[in-house]
């Protein structure tokens, strides 16, 4: 893959993101770096975690939804994890993954929930240890979805509309309605033109930037840092909403971020048509500070696994990141994500 021209620019992008100097967080900006505090059952005095687990324990997250809602959902999750460990959990919502990687390295976060690219960056740049990966729809992988408000341009097949269990309609083309794994429909990316505006998520997101940018290069031969005009929406739902409103004709997100905004925008599934998928990407996961003892790392992993097995915990994980299950990290699979990051100088 020809990526030499990308490296210097991409390194600058990551550096700026890590310093908090970009606008890739929540649209409101002022709410993009919020810390809230939740207590375990015993206030973190003499819980099961004992001296091995920090008290308080700081859990870092990055917005995949509106920041205010994420803070509220993270409060619930932190409370459950704190109760399981017997410590106080403070939740820290960073502006983006790059900022959370920095937080892990500076001691501002003890535990972080990261996308796959940021997981390996947290290891390589901040000395973190990956302990768990997420499961959705029964699989530890996912993909980027490409979507448009102009299906006549990007759909080579008829648009198919499918209703979910709640009766919400969602539209697809190019085989994305029936596919199980990616890539699918990527030939449609050849419709992209030099100078095309694309709504990405943020410069440190796997499905929201790294993988689709790589796909542009491999499918079209265009250099995504030279030939594409990127708009960073600051969140997957924001990218979907931006395409609906006409900010750009095409955008990307995880599959299917439209469901995150259907309550506020009931027509989103038909206004925004999915036309392609990327290759499969290792799911996001959980990393802990490398400064923690092996005992503490295991206790934290066990607590996450125990909480998600409860009815209340399953709801909390679903609310935060639509996580259905957790499994031990597949470090070999994450090597693919590390290589994609390396191609960008990350």
TrEMBL record:
GO terms for biological process: transmembrane transport. Keywords: Signal. It comes from the Bacteria. InterPro entries: PhnD. Residues 1-20 form the signal peptide. Residues 23-45 have a biased composition (Acidic residues). One of its GO terms (cellular component) is ATP-binding cassette (ABC) transporter complex. Gene3D superfamilies: Periplasmic binding protein-like II (3.40.190.10). Residues 22-52 are annotated as: Disordered. Belongs to the phosphate/phosphite/phosphonate binding protein family. This is Phosphate/phosphite/phosphonate ABC transporter substrate-binding protein. It comes from Phytoactinopolyspora alkaliphila. The lineage of its organism: Bacteria, Bacillati, Actinomycetota, Actinomycetes, Jiangellales.
């Amino acid at each position: 893959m020809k990526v030499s021209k990308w490296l210097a620019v991409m390194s600058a992008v990551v550096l700026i993101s890590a310093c908090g100097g970009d606008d890739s967080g929540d649209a409101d900006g002022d709410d993009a770096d919020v810390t809230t505090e939740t207590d375990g059952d015993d206030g973190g005095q003499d819980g099961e975690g004992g001296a091995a687990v920090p008290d308080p324990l700081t859990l870092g997250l990055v917005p995949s939804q509106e920041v205010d809602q994420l803070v509220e959902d993270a409060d619930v999750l932190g409370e459950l994890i704190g109760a399981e460990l017997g410590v106080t959990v403070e939740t820290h919502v960073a502006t983006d993954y790059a900022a959370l990687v920095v937080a892990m390295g500076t001691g501002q976060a003890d535990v972080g929930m990261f996308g796959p690219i940021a997981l390996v960056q947290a290891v390589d740049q901040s000395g973190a240890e990956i302990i768990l990966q997420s499961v959705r729809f029964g699989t530890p992988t996912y993909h980027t979805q490409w979507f448009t408000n102009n299906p006549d341009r990007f759909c080579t097949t008829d648009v198919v509309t499918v209703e979910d269990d709640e009766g919400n309609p969602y539209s697809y083309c190019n085989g994305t309605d029936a596919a199980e794994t990616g890539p699918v429909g990527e030939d449609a990316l050849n419709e992209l033109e030099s100078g095309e505006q694309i709504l990405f998520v943020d410069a440190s997101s796997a499905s929201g930037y790294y993988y689709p940018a790589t796909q542009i290069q491999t499918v079209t031969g265009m250099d995504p840092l030279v030939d594409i005009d990127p708009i960073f929406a600051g969140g997957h739902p924001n990218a979907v909403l931006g395409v609906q409103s006409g900010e750009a004709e095409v955008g990307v997100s995880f599959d299917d971020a439209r469901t995150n905004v259907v309550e506020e925008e009931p027509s989103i599934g038909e206004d925004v048509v999915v036309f392609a998928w990327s290759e499969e990407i290792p799911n996001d996961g959980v990393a802990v500070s490398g400064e923690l003892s092996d005992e503490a790392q295991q206790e934290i992993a066990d607590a996450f696994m125990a909480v998600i097995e409860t009815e209340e915990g399953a709801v909390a994980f679903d609310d935060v990141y639509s996580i259905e299950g957790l499994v031990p990290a597949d470090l070999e699979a994450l090597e693919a994500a590390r290589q994609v990051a390396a191609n960008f100088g990350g």
